[in-house]
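for the record, two folds in this file. i put them one after another cuz i was lazy. first one right below, seq on top, structure tokens after. the second one comes after a little note so u can tell where it starts
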Amino acid sequence: MSEIKLNTALTMEEIADNFQDVNFFEGVTAGLNEALAYEKGTAKAETIARKRSLPDVNVAEVRNSLSLTQKAFAAVLGVSSRTVEAWERGKSIPTPTAKKLMFLISQDHSLVQKLQTQ
């Protein structure tokens, strides 16, 4: 296996400092226990609230309100135009992050211009 290359302005020391207090094993274990509790129906209220807090977005509606083509909208979101097409046809669903971004864009169209200049 080849070595992973990381492009960042941070030094290795800064990266190590950022993760100094992070226990990845505990995080993964907590996530798995939370998922198991959710599946069993014994999840804490905050777990269920977090899972239900994703905004409901109609991809085509958001895109059309911006007068963007699928290709242009895909570029704004950082996905392929085929992904946008699949979302609009119901063949796949947007990731939670994509849903949140589209919700924010639908609330503030000026974000599109900001995202296009990145």
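(here's the note) second protein begins now
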Amino acid sequence: MSISYLDLMENEGWVKFRMEKKGFVAVFEKALDRTLISECVASWLERFEKVEQVVPKMEGTLEVKEPSEIMWEPHVQFRVLNGEQFSWVYVSLDKLAMETTGFQDAEISFCLEVLLELPFVAEVVDEKNHKRLEQLEKAGII
């Protein structure tokens, strides 16, 4: 009988939990314009350690220290960081929804936490709730 390295690590207690991808969609009461997106970034800057934006048309990110530093495009992508936790946030101007992805943490998923306390959020939907996501897609919200 052979024991794999992973089995050994699990038996020694080295592996606490497996990384599970997680995601959420926040539906807003009004369309995401520059003002509302800036308010969301300001909220993240107040609550978390760091916000980065994917540089349009390039590979890589730049730190955003205040909302006025956002590089505007029709579709913007941010990475919100807090210690070793992070979440990707995908936003399109003039849409009613914002998407996040990350990993399931031991407690609340950080990709859910970044959506909490944002202004004008009407609903947050787990990416695994296919029925609700279909309804939102048919309604043209996502």
